[in-house]
Amino acid sequence: MEKPDHEKMNKSFSSETDEKPPRGLLRMLFQHADWKDVVLMGLGTCGCFIDGLSVSAMMLVLSRLMNGYASVSSLTPADVNQISIYFAVFLAFVYIAIVVGSGAFLEGFCWGRTAERQSTRIRTKYLKAILRQQVGYFDTTLEASRVTTSISIDTLNIQGILSEKIPNFITNMWMFIAAEITGLYICWRLAIVAVPAMIVLRKQLSINEEKLQEAYAVAGGIAEQALSSIKTVHSGKNGEAVFNRARTDPDSRYQTRSTERDGVWEHGNIYAMWALLSWYGSVLVIHNGIKGGDILSAGVCVVYGGFGLASSFMNIKYFAEASISAAIISEMIDRIPAIDSSDQHGTTISPVKGELEFKDTRELSSENFNLKVKACQTIGLVGRSGSGKSTVINLLERFYDPLEGEILLDGINIQSLG
């Protein structure tokens, strides 16, 4: 027998069950979640909604408080006792703090707990799926480094998404929706003016972020090239040249320029938007009789709602990374190997005599291999290196299946054994 070529050997695996398309992240969440995890995710989502309502609730109470401050100057001595009404506003802030704090606790605890439970369950299932695969799969398809990467990095990506990114996305998106609705409710005229300005600001910031990411990619590429050939760089005394290249590269220099420019641009636009809201708010107060507290609260709602929308979109790239990790892990967990070590179905021999027979077995050699071993018989396989001695043992242990022929144990094909 010749030494087996594992690439050819694994052609026999083509009869395996067709691989299913990889599942996405959302299906991954519920695929490995039990009823406790569903309850935890439900409570955590409720906590996200409560946490996202904090800005809207505070601005509703603040508008009442600011309007109350403005009306104090018009009170007569007989109406001074009515000032005690505004103590209810302070109590409202206390109640908001308690409710929002409870919601934030539910958000962090429930999502963190279910992330830990599900990631542990995923690691266990992934390890079991790895151990049930045939040896030929690791020879040609899956490298050992991929196994350690998936069981550590990929599961950590999923755990990070569950514990932090998903609740952060829900909270900020709900804060945006609730804040914009509250701003429209308090003063719809001001909200309509503020929303387009916020969209322009967010658009410019996203463009700057894309340029900054490109600049970091260029600088990272220069650094990676230098570090991968550090001996060459050091022996040739090219360290200064690499440093100058990174410093003078147009894309890399964008990092330094963008730090100052983006800071001025971002904060300048924020203050410019507040100036616009202040000016238009004064117009509404003078000509439409809108109260000052409503102007302030509506403006804060729109601005902070825009920040919430931007913060929620920052998590989308992490969702894409976690979806890839979830697809890789799901593909392995769902894969049914041709030689399934966990399959309990099949023929059972009782009692086992121990008679072995290789009947017209051909692996990769041009000749069929035949061998009969009686029970309790001791034999020795002799041959030159690479003649296939170890292949006989591998076939007997079902690390691989022969291309032709069969291996019999007490007259029964070992492929039919459970």
UniProtKB/TrEMBL annotation:
Residues passing through the membrane, by range: 38-62, 83-106, 173-201, 270-290, 296-316
Keyword set includes Cytoplasm: no
Entries under SUPFAM superfamilies matching the protein: ABC transporter transmembrane region, P-loop containing nucleoside triphosphate hydrolases
Stretches with biased composition (Basic and acidic residues): 1-10
One Pfam family hit: ABC_membrane
PROSITE patterns attached to this UniProt entry: ABC_TM1F
Domain of life (superkingdom): Eukaryota
Keywords: Membrane, Transmembrane, Transmembrane helix
Membrane-topology annotation of the record: Multi-pass membrane protein
An example Gene Ontology CC term for this record: plasma membrane
Keyword Transmembrane: yes
Protein name stated in the entry: ABC transmembrane type-1 domain-containing protein
Organism: Centaurea solstitialis
